[in-house]
Amino acid sequence: MKKYFLFIFALILMYSCTQQQQQHAIDWYDSCSQWRGLARDGVYDETGLLKVWNQDGPELLWVYEGLGDGWTSVAVADGKIYVTGMLDPDELHIFVLDLNGNLLNEKHLGDELADNRYPGVRSTVTVNDGKLYVYNAFGNLWCLNQQTLDVVWTKDLFHDFDGRSIVWGVTESPLIVGDKIFMTPGGEVDNMIALNKNTGALIWSSRGTGFPSTYCSPLFIGGYSVPMVVTYMQGERGEGRTTNNTLTAFNADTGELLWTHVQPSGNNINPNTPMYFDGKIFTTTGYGGGSWLLQIIDDGKDVELLWHNSDLDNQMGGAIKIGDYIYGGGHNNNNWFCIDLKTGATKYSVQEIGRSNTITADGMLYVYSERGWMFLVKPNPNEPEIVGRFEITFGHNQHWAHPVIHDGVLYVRRDDALMAYKIR
Question: Fewer beta carbons under 10 A from the terminal one: N or C of the chain?
Answer without folding.
Answer: N
